[in-house]
Amino acid sequence: MARLILVSGPIGVGKTTYSLSLSKEVDAVRFSIDPWMKTLFSKDMTSLDYSWMIERVNRCYEQIWQVSEQILSLNGNVILDLGFTTKAQRDIFNNKAKTLNIQVEIHYLDAPKSIRKKRIEKRNFDKDPNVYSFEVTDMMFNFMEPQFEIPDEEELTHGCRVKT
Predict the structure, then answer these.
(1) Dihedral of CA 35/40/45/48: which sign?
(2) What's the pTM?
(3) 79-97 as b/e: b if 16+ CB within 10 A
(4) For the chain, what is the total number of helices (H) and then of strands (E)?
(5) Nearest 10 degrees: CA dihedral of 94, 99, 100, 104?
(6) Contact 162, 18 (CB under 8 A)
(7) d(C-alpha 162, C-alpha 159), whole Å
(8) Pseudo-torsion of CA 75, 93, 15, 76, nearest 10°?
(9) 3-state secondary structure of 100
(10) What's domain 4-163's architecture?
(11) Average pLDDT taken over every residue of the chain
């Protein structure tokens, strides 16, 4: 049976690293929002305007879902490393999956802010283009930090909480 895994967590928690490893473990196609946003919109981004950014994120979500739906209909596994900052964003994909009779697994990654900040510093220093699409500045980290909504127990019924 096809699996749809949504990887959720605050900035710097290790979603991409986790998703890369998990995709090999469960033989899944992985989609990450960062390269899509970088390729399609980074040159147009002049400031950190949440409404501007989220509108473009939603455009990427639609395109990623169209491809994911095809993979899932062929009984393939899909991992979505799309951040899933809010419950509303997670609900969109949960509802789409329901139309395919697929139970979503939410993998919520959790780590203290201090550890996540250190990971961001290392990520920015390493600049591995095979893993990370862009540098995360302190301004970006501080901007995104209050945006994240922790998944509740109901959302995690078919998922898990992972300490990273």
Answers:
(1) negative
(2) 0.85
(3) bbbbbbbebebbebbbebb
(4) 6, 5
(5) 10
(6) yes
(7) 10
(8) 10
(9) coil
(10) 3-Layer(aba) Sandwich (3.40)
(11) 89
In the numeric block, which tokens belong to residue 101?
């009779």
Residue found by looking up tokens 């919109």 in the block: 41
- Measured CA to CA, the distance from residue 159 to residue 86 in angstroms comes to 16
Amino acid at 136: V
Distance CA(4)–CA(133), nearest Å, equals 23
Q: Which three-class secondary structure state does DSSP give residue 30? A: strand
* Amino acid, res. 12: G
Residue-by-residue DSSP string for 72-96:
HHTT-EEEEEEE--SHHHHHHHHHH
> Which of 7-16, 39-48, 129-138 tops mean pLDDT?
7-16
Q: Which two tokens stand for residue 85?
A: 């900052």
Dist. CA 1–CA 58, nearest whole Å: 27
Nearest alpha carbon to residue 7 among 72, 76, 93: 93
Place of tokens 């600049």: 127
